[in-house]
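Dear H.,

Thanks for agreeing to be a second pair of eyes. The structure we're designing against is below in token form, covering all 315 positions.
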């Protein structure tokens, strides 16, 4: 069983439009409504692969109830932590060329009691989980060290933890030695405080995060592929993609594939790349099923192209 934690979940509405016209009336050609949040997406991808997953979520108001209903309809167990504030609603506008414009609401402010209830709920489910994936930004009311406290409690329960967050909360959590951290290129550059221009720059940055406490670093480099830097070595993976339709949740699908494949080594990285490549070819935040995966399109190697410039360098 894979347990996911999403401290700031959402109800996501995605509209496909011909183009954005400021001040005009935009007519959508298609629309979707999905339960949202990075950990939620990981659970959705795990469930789509036929594995059991439990999503721990602070939920409030009508949007929160709808998120729980949508997840239940996808076969995902929800460990609901009631909160007074309403769960946030986000909007994404997807254009035919793959450009995505997102409006993310701030979400509710959690009280100290709600924060402790969330931590206690996670702890009560930790013992039966093979992995715990803790993902996304923290809601108002939770300090930057909240993830660090969570990692410490999970490790005391003897469970492995993967952390997908950024900024001060990522840096604070490193001291508690999370088993895996999953930054994208921008988050990786922010964590080390310098620009990343090449794949080699990203490798060095990942090595620094390991030096600060991360057991392994699974780094998404967008169109350039993915890196896995761990005690076992450094691997580089990439896949052929025919066309990008939406990159919403692609990193979350990658993390789901990685953990479902064991969370370590070349095989897990190959699964991560396959899931991410499949996700970007699907609409909105649809998570890939096994039928969507193309393992033959994936290449994983220890011959890392250190001098290759990043398509989107981190300033």
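And this is the sequence the design step returned. I haven't edited it by hand at all.
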């Amino acid at each position: 069983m894979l347990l996911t934690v999403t401290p700031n979940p959402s109800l996501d509405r995605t509209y496909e439009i011909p183009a954005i016209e400021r001040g005009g009336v935009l007519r959508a050609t298609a629309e979707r409504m999905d339960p949202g949040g990075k950990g939620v997406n990981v659970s959705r991808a795990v469930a789509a692969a036929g594995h059991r997953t439990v999503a721990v979520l602070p939920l409030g108001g009508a949007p929160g109830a709808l998120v729980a209903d949508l997840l239940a309809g996808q076969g995902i167990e929800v460990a609901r932590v009631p909160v007074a504030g309403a769960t946030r609603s986000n909007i994404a506008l997807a254009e035919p060329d793959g450009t995505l414009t997102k409006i993310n609401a701030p979400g509710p402010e959690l009280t100290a009691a709600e924060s402790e209830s969330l931590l206690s709920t996670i702890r009560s489910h930790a013992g039966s989980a093979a992995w715990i994936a803790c993902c996304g930004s923290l809601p108002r009311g939770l300090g930057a060290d909240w993830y660090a406290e969570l990692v410490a409690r999970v490790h005391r329960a003897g469970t492995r933890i993967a952390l997908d967050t950024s900024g001060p909360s990522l840096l604070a959590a490193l001291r508690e030695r999370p088993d895996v951290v999953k930054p994208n290129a921008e988050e990786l550059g922010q964590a080390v405080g310098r620009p990343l221009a090449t794949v080699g720059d990203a490798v060095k940055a990942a090595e620094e995060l390991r030096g600060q406490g991360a057991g392994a670093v699974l780094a998404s480099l967008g169109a350039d592929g993915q890196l896995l830097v761990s005690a076992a070595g450094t691997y580089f993976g990439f896949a052929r993609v025919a066309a990008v339709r939406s990159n919403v949740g692609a990193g979350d699908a990658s993390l789901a594939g990685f953990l479902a494949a064991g969370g370590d080594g070349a095989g897990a990285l190959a699964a991560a790349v396959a899931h991410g490549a499949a996700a970007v070819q699907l609409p909105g935040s649809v998570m890939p099923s096994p039928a969507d995966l193309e393992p033959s399109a994936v290449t994983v190697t220890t011959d890392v192209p250190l001098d290759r410039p990043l398509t989107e360098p981190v300033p």
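Two observations from my side: The CA atoms of residues 210 and 272 lie 20 Å apart. The first helix runs from residue 38 to 48.

Warmly,
E.
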